[in-house]
């Protein structure tokens, strides 16, 4: 008996589908292509965001749009220099791990750079949910602490 035998292997075809879906999802988000995002995101997708900020916790797509708009509203020139770089995508079965680097300039001229990690779930060729992780201490020094009136 080989005591180092692998007893469980993830379906490589499912892993490849997940990798393609997640890469398409982030590529479309980075490009601001909402139509392409809607093709690979479930309409019932949920997003959980780390921390104890007003934007933390579980959200649906409508709430995420308000959070995104509030964040971009705090950037210089409406986020003209906002950039997201996709650093890595790792997939296994119907789950994926993604790392991004986000850079921008706040309206007051301060630079912003954050590395974020996302853990995603995919079903039937669509992203059905993800969890977003980042440096909460860094975010606390940069992001607005108060909930905007439209959130």
UniProtKB/TrEMBL annotation:
Positions of the SnoaL-like domain:
22-129
Q: Which Gene3D superfamilies match?
A: 3.10.450.50
Ranges that cross the membrane: none
The record's InterPro entries line, in alphabetical order, gives:
NTF2-like_dom_sf (IPR032710), SnoaL-like (IPR037401)
Name used for this protein in its record? SnoaL-like domain-containing protein
Q: Which organism was this protein described from?
A: Streptomyces canus
């Amino acid at each position: 008996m080989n005591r180092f035998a692998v007893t469980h292997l993830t379906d490589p075809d499912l892993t490849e589908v997940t990798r393609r879906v997640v890469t398409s999802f982030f590529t479309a988000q980075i490009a601001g292509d909402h139509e392409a995002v809607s093709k690979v995101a479930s309409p019932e997708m949920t997003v959980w965001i780390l921390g104890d900020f007003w934007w933390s916790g579980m959200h649906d797509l409508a709430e995420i749009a308000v959070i995104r708009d509030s964040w971009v509203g705090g950037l210089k020139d409406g986020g003209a220099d906002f950039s997201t770089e996709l650093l890595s995508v790792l997939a296994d079965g119907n789950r994926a791990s993604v790392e991004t680097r986000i850079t921008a300039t706040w309206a007051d001229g301060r630079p912003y750079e954050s590395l974020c990690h996302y853990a995603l779930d995919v079903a039937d060729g669509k992203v059905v949910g993800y969890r977003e992780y980042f440096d909460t201490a860094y975010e606390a020094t940069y992001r607005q602490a108060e909930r905007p009136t439209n959130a």
